[in-house]
Amino acid sequence: MPHILIVEDEAAIADTLIFALQGEGFSTTWLSLGADALALQRQTPADLIILDIGLPDISGFETCKQLRRFSEVPVIFLSARDAEIDRVVGLEIGADDYVVKPFSPREVAARVRAILKRMAPRATAEAEPVLFRIDSERVQISYRNRWLSLTRHEFRLLQCLLEQPERVFSREQLLDALGVAADAGYERSIDSHIKSVRAKLRGVKADAEPIQTHRGLGYSYSPGHS
Ligand code: CA
């Protein structure tokens, strides 16, 4: 069941949308702040976002701009004014569609359905889904479209493994990647970092084992076990 996130500060409008979307078989979440929507989308991504432009904290435009730094989720803007529409149409904000208030909730639900339908073949046609995405600037790695909360060492370790799939790295080589001096204590700390990274990956997909242990040798990243 596709999940729709509604970001709208007017309860009456949100209510009509929720009613129409649930009637079409969608599940919904409703938030009234842009910042909350960004935080939620990082944790549990919705399949589509309906985003009001006039929000009490940051505008829908700003919300969308920030959203596009980490997500490709389709966005439908809700606009109260023609002037806003000019910006949606005129600028490359990354919206997929927009509707002007007052609108028919059924019409919005129909557009949601149309966009998701358009997206579906695209998703299945992708031969290799993006399992990991590395954002070196923000020192973050996403796994199956979810950002992992990694320590700096965990980030470097996972980045090193991901950059050369199937290559077996010894603990010394991984220590090198972390930029710390090798001694017996640090070798064991590699094991504990790996353990922690694995737990975080399993938090996204319970049976995932993309990091393989090679007894007596070290560790590798195996996309086949992702
Ligand atoms: Ca509003």
Give the key terms.
8 helices, 10 strands, three-stranded antiparallel sheet, alpha/beta, 226 residues
Q: Spans of 5+ residues with little confidence (pLDDT < 50)?
A: none
Contiguous helical run count:
8
Helix content: 40-55%
Distance between the termini: 24 Å
Helix and strand composition category: alpha/beta
**SSE string, helices as H and strands as E:** EHEHEHEHEHEEEHHHEE
Small-molecule components bound: calcium ion
Roughly what is the average pLDDT, rounded to an integer?
88
Strand order of the largest sheet: 2-1-3-4-5
Explained architecture:
By secondary structure, the chain is of the alpha/beta class. The chain has 8 helices and 10 strands. A 5-stranded parallel beta sheet has the order 2-1-3-4-5, with helices on both faces. It has a 3-stranded antiparallel beta sheet with strand order 6-7-8, covered by helices on one side. A hairpin with a 3-residue loop joins strand 9 (211-214) and strand 10. Calcium ion (CA) binds next to loops.
Question: Strands, helices and their partners?
Answer:
Layout: E1 3-7, H1 11-23, E2 27-31, H2 34-43, E3 48-52, H3 60-67, E4 75-79, H4 82-90, E5 97-100, H5 105-125, E6 132-135, E7 140-143, E8 146-147, H6 152-163, H7 171-178, H8 184-204, E9 211-214, E10 218-221
Helix pairs in contact: 1-5, 2-3, 6-7, 6-8, 7-8
